[in-house]
Amino acid sequence: MQSSEGQKEYDFVIVGSGLGGLACANILASEGFSVVVLEKNHQIGGHLQVYSRGKSIYDTGVHYVGSLDEGENLYQFFKYFGILDHLKVKRMDDDKFDVIRFDDGSEYHYAQGFDRFKETLIGYFPDEKTAIETYCDKIIEICNKFPLYNLRISGENYQMDGDVLGMNTYDYIASLTDNVRLQNVLAGSNLLYAGVQDKTPFYVHALIMKSYLSGSYKFVDGGSQIAIQMSRAIRKNGGEIYKHKKVVSANYNEAGEITGVVLENGEIIKGKQFISNVHPAVTIDIFGADRFLNVYKNRVQGLENSISTFLVHISFHENSFEYLNYNIYQHHIDSVWGGIDYDEETWPQTYFICTPCISKTGKYADSMSIMTYMKSCETDKWADSFSTVAEPGRRDEEYAEFKKLKEGKVIDKLEEVFPGITGKIKAVHSATPLTFRDYIGNRDGSLYGILKNSNSPARTQINTKTRIPNLHLTGQNISMHGILGVTVSAFVTCFSFVDKDKLIQKVKNA
């Protein structure tokens, strides 16, 4: 960057280097625009960030990905971005990529591909063949109403379709069968979207399920390789990316357009168009609350975020715990929806277990990640503290004790699933809602952003355009969270600047 005197004016200034920001930068740079991405942290990638402790690599947000079989939507998007051939991935087990497990020890496998998935489930529930087939058909029908997920531009406009957006996951599944165990098996991976029984829309469930049934893969050595490969592709197309650049405010001209963003160090970055990949509520703070209509501001700032997470990483003694090429969704309570309103005494009641795939991994796992729900209010007493690699801060002894206590509770539960596992553990690390808040830049550490609500679907729909003429939004709060959802949101944002038919044709031709 030049000094502010003869300073360069970029076509696009993108705030935040999460996948949404990187995808927008990739699309726009490859269309010949001058682009700069500004990241406040030491690492780019948002939820794609990894960290290492000892010699183990840990993912913070992305543990596996769907839709990566040849020709599937994410496969095509990654091809278009020019990163597919550079990613190291491992396909998960065909007969079980996810295992839904209950307290009584019973396990139900999700197999890859709709046919195998149906066949396996009908094996467990032979009397429920019709319900299982209807469920699968409905997933495909709903997903067809989302054109971009099928690399189409036209099609029914789902955003106006109240019947689709207002359909509730729990209610729909319950309408298919009276078999309560089957209902819970079908919704058993709802930690993927922090499912809430009376709120989560079925389209959220459907898009995510279809994605994972269309090719589930782990990233070898962590999901940060997506961010690394995206940044290489951006730079190859002339785009620029800068870390340790925290945007705190913006300058405006008389027409109410942004002329530049102001960094914490006083530097000004000029641009013609601005894209925020930051949570919409935080975007309002950065760009000036007085620039937005009260009704919009109150709605966005009043939207409920999905619950946060407590993430435990354990590393194993060498050759002590076998690598699992599938994930486990463990439920210690009968209802898979109950863990979100947990009772602190019996917490954690539901959690996700995976063993990361490391290139040196053979038969044995290097480590394990366990994610469970945690309300951000549990860490409120330390809310004034802040700590990242870019801005190291200290949290007190009491916080360290709090984490230790919670880690112990998680490991006690794990011992029920894997008797003897405690003796195989070499080290334990954990992350709380505060960790996610500090690194991702939202207010409460929510992992999946704004909670979608089937009771008032229009309230949670956020447009990519804002009242500020040259400020646009992207990221997980725009269409959906997850790698696929965020990628789709980036295309929606870029349709304001690039011919959408031509763009989607490029994706198909990739």
TrEMBL record:
Any one Pfam family match given in the protein's UniProt record, by short name: NAD_binding_8
By its UniProt entry, which InterPro entries does this protein fall under?
A: FAD/NAD-bd_sf, Retinol_saturase
What SUPFAM superfamilies does this protein map onto? FAD/NAD(P)-binding domain
Keyword Lyase recorded:
no
Q: Keyword set for this entry? A: FAD, Flavoprotein, NAD, NADP, Signal
Q: Which domain of life is it from?
A: Bacteria
Annotated protein name in UniProt: NAD(P)/FAD-dependent oxidoreductase
Could you tell me which species this protein originates from?
A: Dyadobacter pollutisoli
